[in-house]
Amino acid sequence: MCYCMPLVTFQHFYIQLALYTEKFEEFQSTLSKSNEVFTTFKQEMEKMTKKIKKLEKETTMYRSRWESSNKALFVMAEEKTLRDKEQEALQAKIQRLEKLCRALQTERNDLNKKVQGLSGPQVPSAETTEDCASCTTPAISENVELNSSDVCGQNALQAAPPLPPLPPAMPE
């Protein structure tokens, strides 16, 4: 028997052992790199999970703000509609009152002319003429009372306390 055969076999096994050791070390380094990548991935996933939770909270907060703002907008729109209708009604009322006031002033002037016409042609004294010249037709916004004891009819107008001024017209 030859003793060289076991030596060749031994060397062959030694070379295979070195080859397997090298491959095992490569496997271990690949495994450790894989573990590092997995750990990094896990950390990134945790960060992203935290970000997602934070963004979901913000989304919920902004959604609730939007909903409350939207509700407030609808309420304000309804209030505006009601106020616009109220303004239109008040404008119509003001126009009716102004028309009525003009009609009453016209009627008062006509009645004053009739009273003067029935009392005959009188020559007014200088004092009466001065009083009548200083009389003016009251403004629409004043309350006026008629004093029946006045002969001329012009001094019969006594101004009552004025009504509060009208609010400024709303631009359309």
Automatic annotation (TrEMBL):
Task: Please give the InterPro entries that the UniProt record associates with this protein.
Answer: Taxilin_fam
Give the top-rank taxon of the lineage listed in the UniProt record for this protein.
Eukaryota
Identify the stretch annotated as signal peptide in this record: none
Native source organism of the sequence:
Aquarana catesbeiana (American bullfrog)
Q: What is this protein called?
A: Alpha-taxilin
* Keywords from the UniProt entry: Coiled coil
Similarity field: Belongs to the taxilin family.
Which is an annotated GO molecular function term of this record? syntaxin binding
Q: Which residues form a coiled coil?
A: 38-114
Q: Name one Pfam family in it.
A: Taxilin
